[in-house]
Design brief:
Order of helices and strands: HHHHEEHHHEEHH
Shape: extended
CATH superfamily of one domain: Cytochrome c-like domain
CATH architecture of one domain: Orthogonal Bundle
Oligomer: single chain
Number of helices: 9
Helix content: 40-55%
Largest sheet: 2 strands, antiparallel
Strand content: under 5%
Bound molecules: heme C
CATH class of one domain: Mainly Alpha
């Protein structure tokens, strides 16, 4: 009895719901044609207002950019640009020499250790020799004293200053940023580094830079606290490459690119492998799919009424 009652109730509910849906549908149909003229006018006005506000915002934003005195970096044809091109490792090695001889006087690279150079730009014994050339504070020893020892492969590149305040004090208040990840931290990456290092010039007429600052159109604002660091023959390369300012800028940019993306070459190698594997698998799975579906795709469903 109870079962029959719920059965009836359910059937009634279903009926009510079905008719409800039908009702809703018929009342919800509305088109632009039968929309009230006033409503159309209001919507149109909102559209026009919104569009002109966006245009005005864009124009105002452009007008305060003062972009004539600032240069955007050019895109240079790096040899590692191609999707399958590795970094130029001879260039990384020269770039390390530039960093060590020039930039390391002011910039730290605290996330790069000497062991990272092994197999990239130096052999193990060469990297060891590089590490041993620096003195590292270690300790305490058995007498509780800190002591200096030659560097080891596991040591990180030394910081030229003991702290940020000392770094600022030595550079007219400007803090030389850590260069470990600089190519990822600036728009343009290695292009920016190259442009910045080679972009020093006299300020244009009417522009003066404060004492202790230098004009560089690639730096935001144009006045940078870093003096031009690279001049022709400011150092010598161990492989005999002529050390022109642009050569050094290019090499140090490649070195910094490697430092920020040490997985660069591996990444591109993996991409090559992945593309090869996936194209093989794609072909195979396409064939298997056609094979498995062939029965279903060629099936014909026919209705044959029984006589
Ligand atoms: C005499 C010290 C000194 C030397 C040498 C030096 N720099 Fe700098 N560098 C600075 C200072 C100071 C700043 C901060 C400038 C500022 O914020 O106005 C800076 C800033 C930078 C920046 C960041 C610019 C930015 O967009 O914020 C980069 C990149 C850079 N240096 C690269 C180098 C490279 C590469 C070398 C070696 C070829 C080098 N520097 C050599 C002092 C130096």
């Amino acid at each position: 009895m109870a079962l029959a009652a719920t059965g009836i109730a359910r059937a009634n509910l279903l009926k009510a719901r079905v008719s409800g849906i039908a009702l809703q549908n018929s009342s919800k149909f509305s088109t632009l044609r039968n929309m009230a003229a006033a409503r159309k006018a209001v919507l149109g006005a909102i559209g026009i207002l919104g569009g002109s506000a966006a245009g005005l915002t864009y124009a105002l934003n452009q007008s305060v950019k003062a972009s004539e005195l600032e240069l955007h970096t050019t895109k240079f044809p790096w040899s590692h640009d191609g999707i399958f091109s590795s970094l130029d490792h001879a260039s990384i090695r020269r770039g390390y020499e530039v960093y060590k001889n020039v930039c390391a006087a002011c910039h730290s690279m605290k996330y790069i250790a000497f062991r990272n150079l092994i197999g990239v730009s130096h052999t193990e014994s060469e990297a060891k020799a590089e590490a041993e050339a620096i003195q590292v504070k270690d300790g305490p020893n058995d007498d509780g004293e800190m002591f200096e020892r030659p560097g080891k492969l596991s040591d990180y590149f030394p910081n030229p200053y003991t702290n940020d305040e000392a770094a600022r004090a030595a550079n007219n208040g400007a803090l030389p940023p850590d260069l470990s990840y600089i190519t990822s931290a600036r728009h343009g990456g290695e292009n920016y580094i190259f442009s910045l290092l080679t972009g020093y010039c006299d300020p244009p007429a009417g522009v003066s830079v404060r004492e202790g600052l230098y004009y560089n159109p690639y730096f935001t604002g144009g006045a940078i606290g870093m003096a031009q660091a690279l001049y022709n023959e400011v150092m010598e390369y161990s492989d005999g490459t002529p050390a022109t300012a642009s050569q050094m800028a290019k090499d140090v940019a490649v070195f910094l690119k490697w430092a920020a993306e040490p997985e660069h070459d591996q990444r591109k190698k993996m991409a090559l492998k992945a593309i090869m594997m996936f194209s093989l698998l794609f072909g195979l799975s396409y064939y298997v799919k056609r094979h498995k579906w062939s029965v279903l795709k060629s099936r014909k469903i026919a209705y044959k009424p029984s006589q």
